[in-house]
């Protein structure tokens, strides 16, 4: 959290909501562009990382909606390169994460982000259910959600033959602890009035 960030008492604009939820002030950004220069996905984004912050700084309703409708917030890998390069210590990945939540909540998810959401949901479901990732379960759930049933299907036998994929999930000692983490997150979301991301809902922006 930036030292100068202060939580607004009654957030109104999206930038104030960002600050309230993440502790990050978009106004710490002075648009040097170092984040965008280092971002591995910037070339694919509809708005570069520094442009996302500029739109939030301007704070006009139409621009805020542009941010929440953008593909950029879903392409962000949370790789932290931007945060590591930023001279102002702006934690852009935290901001991107909050923007994704708001995009879902307000039904503004970019149509091209559907597969990304499906992957997120399948990944979380696998961890929730097994305590750790079960790759075959993840792939199956992802394919069922996206109908990409035949995508990469020829690779599966080779991976199975080499022991890279297990048909059954492996048990772990801390499975109950992982379940408790999910339960606590769900309770915190409910208390904060946030909803859990639902891929099926988000697939109809
Ligand atoms: S590196 Fe930091 S200050 Fe520079 S444009 Fe990006 S967020 Fe703003
Ligand atoms: S965290 Fe996101 S915005 Fe920042 S450099 Fe990585 S992909 Fe780009």
Concise synopsis of the structure shown:
The protein is 56% helix and 0% strand. The chain has twelve helices and no strands. The protein starts with 13 loop residues before the first helix and ends with a helix.
Q: What is the CATH first-level class name of the largest domain?
A: Mainly Alpha
Q: Count the E strands.
A: 0
Largest sheet at a glance? none
Helix proportion of residues, in percent?
55-70%
Count of DSSP H/I helices: 12
Secondary-structure content class: mainly alpha
- Please state the average pLDDT score: 87
Report what the structure shows.
This protein has 205 residues and is mainly alpha-helical. The chain has 2 domains: 14-108, Alpha-helical ferredoxin (Fumarate Reductase Iron-sulfur Protein, Chain B, domain 2, Orthogonal Bundle), CATH 1.10.1060.10; 112-202, no CATH class. It is built from 12 helices and no strands. The longest helix is centred in the last third of the chain and has 18 residues, at 175-192. Bound molecules: iron/sulfur cluster (2 copies).
Based on the model shown, name its key terms.
about 200 residues, 12 helices, Fumarate Reductase Iron-sulfur Protein, Chain B, domain 2, disordered C terminus, 2 domains, mainly alpha, globular, binds iron/sulfur cluster
């Amino acid at each position: 959290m930036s030292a100068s960030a202060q939580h607004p008492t009654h957030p109104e604009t999206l930038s104030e909501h960002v600050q309230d939820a993440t502790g990050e002030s978009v106004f710490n950004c002075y648009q040097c562009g170092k984040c965008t220069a280092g971002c591995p996905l910037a070339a694919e984004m509809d708005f570069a990382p520094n442009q996302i912050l500029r739109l939030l700084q301007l704070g006009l309703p139409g621009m805020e909606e542009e941010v929440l409708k953008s593909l950029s917030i879903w392409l962000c890998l949370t790789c932290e390169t931007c945060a590591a390069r930023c001279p102002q210590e702006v934690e852009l990945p935290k901001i991107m994460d909050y923007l994704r939540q708001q995009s879902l909540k307000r039904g503004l998810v970019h149509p091209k982000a559907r597969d990304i959401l499906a992957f997120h949901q399948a990944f979380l479901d696998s961890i929730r259910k097994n305590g750790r990732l079960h790759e075959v379960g993840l792939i199956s759930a992802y394919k069922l959600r996206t109908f990409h049933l035949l995508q990469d299907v020829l690779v599966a036998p080779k991976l199975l033959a080499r022991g890279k994929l297990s048909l059954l999930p492996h048990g772990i000692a801390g499975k109950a602890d992982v379940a408790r983490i999910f339960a606590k997150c769900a309770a915190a979301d409910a208390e904060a009035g946030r909803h859990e991301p639902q891929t099926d809902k988000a697939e109809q922006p």
